[in-house]
Structures are given as structure tokens and as C-alpha cells.
Design brief:
about 230 residues, alpha/beta, 5-stranded parallel sheet, two-stranded antiparallel ribbon, 9 strands, about 20% strand, binds (6-phenylpyridin-3-yl)methanamine
């Protein structure tokens, strides 16, 4: 899996990229993340990447030329142009289903905005797959891009151990439920005991208890997942 991140703040990424799971995946050659500074495509002495909105209003807008030229140069640098993703609150909401779809591409080009957003012509010219990680406004698309990378690499074969891959599989497809409660040692803490069934050694009973807990927890907290599991809630 190959990611290209297009951003005005590449320095936001190395801390995240140094995280153990991702670091091991990069070292194993399973994942490659390349950072590109949009400012490197800006013209003139001041390398201006933003400007005031036509028609007035607050804030600044990302200029069309450096963004479009950055996207085109990065995509053209390799035989596979990749799947272009723009991180924006105006995109389709990211779900595990969409993560699975994104993980089907060999190369993802992640375009991160800042300020009040992109000149509309960036969308018209580059025709990105616009993705939102949730209905809130961030300082820019970088944290959303890290969310996409984090969710996608877990689906790259070999990145996770078999244990976690199997767990992921049981929640793939339509009928996703919330996780059941988990316990580990000590058996009792401040008067709170782990349920006896988990220490019974009866694996059929344990599986039944967990399934029931998942169903109950999902009903209580996220009934929307039970009613329309494949919908983009
Ligand atoms: C904010 C450009 N869906 C999360 C998300 C993604 C991007 C942005 N905000 C929220 C954003 C400012 C400028 C993008």
C-alpha cells in the first residue's frame, strides 16, 4: 500500500508515522508513506499558497494553481496515478465499508486542505473522492488523512497478526456490532468481579455471552447500527 500525502504541514506526520504498527509495516515494505509540501508548487518569491476569497468573507482560500500542480505532479511521477482522496467535511462520511473500498487501491493520494478550504476549481479539475471523517471542523485535513491511513493499513495483508485480522473479519461486511466487554487479571478489583462465565472454560457459553453482550450494547448505544447496518450513519 502506497500513500502520498499532499499538505502544507508535512511536519505533522512523522510522529504518527513513527508509531510501532505503522513503523513495522513500513520496515517490512508493506506500506510506503511519502509526504509532499504543497508550498513547493507555489510561484514567486513569497510562495503564496492562499489568498482572500472573491466576494469577501473571513479567512483565506487555498489557491488553485499550487494545489492542482502538486496533485498532477505527484500522480504523474509513477505509472499508477493512484486514487485521489480529498479530506473535507463536505465528503461522504468514512465508514469501515469505505475503508475497505479505499484499501482496494494500490496507491492513495491524500489531499489535505487548510484555512477556509480549497478554491472550487481544485475539485472541478482533479475530481477527487471527497471523504469526511466526521461532522466536525478540524484545523485542516491532516488529522483526517492520518485517520484514513490508520484505518486502511490495518486491512493490508501482513500488517496485523492473524489474531487481530480474524477479529476484524468477524465485524466486516454489513452486520457490525459493538464489542462485548473484556476483562483481564485481577479477577476482582474494588469489589468488581469479572463475570464467572469468562473463567468457566466453557467456550460455547463464553461465545454465547459475548454475542448477547454485543447485541445489548449495540441496542443501547448505537441502535442505528442494528436498524440499517450498511448505511452511512
Ligand atoms: C478543515 C480544510 N471530516 C473531518 C474534517 C476534514 C477536513 C477538515 N475539517 C474536518 C478541514 C479546515 C480546512 C479541511
Amino acid at each position: 500500500m502506497h500513500f502520498d500525502v499532499l499538505t502544507l504541514f508535512p511536519e505533522m506526520f512523522p510522529g504518527y508515522l513513527g508509531q510501532s504498527l505503522l513503523k513495522l509495516a513500513v520496515q517490512a515494505g508493506l506500506v510506503d508513506v511519502r509526504l509532499h509540501n504543497i508550498r513547493d508548487w507555489a510561484e514567486g518569491k513569497h510562495k503564496q499558497v492562499d489568498d482572500r476569497p472573491f466576494g469577501g468573507g473571513p479567512g483565506m482560500i487555498l489557491k488553485v494553481e499550487p494545489v492542482v500542480e502538486c496533485v498532477e505532479a505527484v500522480r504523474a511521477a509513477e505509472s499508477d496515478p493512484g486514487h485521489l482522496v480529498m479530506l473535507t467535511p463536505q465528503g461522504r462520511r468514512l465508514t469501515q465499508e469505505i475503508v475497505e473500498e479505499l484499501a482496494g487501491h494500490r496507491r492513495l493520494v491524500l489531499l489535505c486542505g487548510r484555512y477556509e478550504g480549497f478554491d472550487e476549481r481544485v475539485r472541478l479539475i482533479t475530481q477527487p473522492d471527497e471523504i469526511s471523517v466526521g461532522d466536525y471542523v478540524l484545523g485542516g485535513g491532516e488529522v483526517a488523512a492520518m485517520v484514513v491511513i490508520d484505518a486502511v493499513i490495518r486491512l493490508v495483508p501482513g500488517v496485523l497478526g492473524h489474531e487481530e485480522s480474524a477479529k476484524q473479519d468477524s465485524f466486516s461486511g454489513g452486520g457490525r456490532l459493538l464489542e462485548y466487554p473484556q476483562y483481564t487479571r485481577p479477577r476482582e478489583y474494588r469489589g468488581l468481579e469479572a463475570p464467572d462465565v469468562l473463567l468457566s472454560g466453557d467456550h460455547a457459553q463464553i461465545a454465547q455471552w459475548r454475542a448477547e453482550q454485543s447485541r445489548r450494547r449495540t441496542q443501547e448505544r448505537r441502535a442505528d447500527l442494528l436498524n440499517k447496518p450498511s448505511e452511512n450513519k
